[in-house]
Amino acid sequence: MLLLALAPSGLEKLWFALIGVLWLGYFFLEGFDFGVGILVPFVSRDDTDRRVAINTIGPVWDGNEVWLLTAGGATFAAFPLWYATVFSGFYLALLVVLAALIFRGMAFEMRHRRDDDAWRRWWDRALFWGSAVPALLWGVAFADFVHGVPVGANATWTGTFFDLVKPYALVGGLATLTLFALHGATYLGLKAEGDVRERASALAARLAPLTFVVVTAFLTWTYLSARSMHHEGLVPPLLPILGLGALAAVTWLARERLEGWAFVATAVSIVALFTTLLLNLYPNVLVSSISPAYNITIVGSASHPYTLTVMSWVALIFTPLVLAYQSWSYWIFRRRVHRPGEAGATHASPVG
């Protein structure tokens, strides 16, 4: 109980922030991957269109998923109690996410292996559901972190799977699902050419108002919940307002064919949404719905300072290298993807 009263050390604050940055990077990058996978059936009229849409993310999707592995590994090393409790209570949900990501990855690799329409349709369904399910469940999980789950004394999980799917969490899942789909639409408008680009831009303009309504409802509920727990002071009011303002501009940006700015706007919305959730969570890493005394805090779940110190040096040395490599890969595959035979066509990836 004494740990609950202690203020987090500088290293503990640093690693909470770094893990937050890793999750933000994952949702920014993998968010448009999920969005493209969700939208492939809606921006395509034939298999060539589907290949164009898939090839926009073909060279980068697996690199984007590395951010998830890094975030999970950093959580395990820096805050092992947080990691253990989440994997105990969220086990079934995380298993569903893992299965979805496995089938999604297989879809990229397998759909072109046979020249058979039925074969490709099966893998296209795997790509859709393998993108939509994680896009929904990641929002549910982070909403649960903030709003509370049944964690008792000694970080013991006392609930069931159905305690994870309360109304607030479901609204959070819908917020991330629609936001990632919109992010994917703006990315396709930026990276595709021809009919796929036109359909994606039109879809972004139609999807943006719905996304704005859902995200506004979720952030409003988050604010009211934070006020009821007297915990709203950490979130700068400008942050969610900035995210909603960027989201409100997407329809106009898409219609004006300002695809790059539309993509920036959805990226800002994603960063603002998840930063708001993380700031609402601090100094906890998991809120207990049973009693605030059972909240899992940064202090109570952190590793030994020596471990955090070694991790900090490793992060300082290797993170710039990883960022440089990933930036280089995006630069190499920066050109738009066309249908075969169109002017300026590029062969971005063989995954289609």
Overall radius of gyration: 21 Å
User: Which CATH top level class fits?
Assistant: Mainly Alpha
Global mean pLDDT: 89
Q: Biggest sheet: strands side by side, in what order?
A: 1-2
Descriptive account of the structure:
- This protein has 352 residues and is mostly helical.
- The protein has one domain: Formate dehydrogenase/DMSO reductase fold (Up-down Bundle), CATH 1.20.1630.
- Helices cover 73% and strands 1% of the residues.
- It has 14 helices and 2 strands.
- It has helices at 2-5, 10-43, 47-55, 61-78, 80-89, 91-110, 117-147, 167-191, 195-228, 238-248, 250-255, 259-281, 298-301, 305-332; strands at residues 284-286, 296-297.
- A two-stranded antiparallel sheet has the order 1-2.
- Helix 2 runs antiparallel to helix 7, helix 8 (167-191) packs antiparallel against helix 9 and helix 10 runs antiparallel to helix 12.
- The longest helix has 34 residues, at 10-43.
- It starts with a helix and ends in a 20-residue tail after the last helix.
- Residues 344-352 have low confidence and may be disordered.
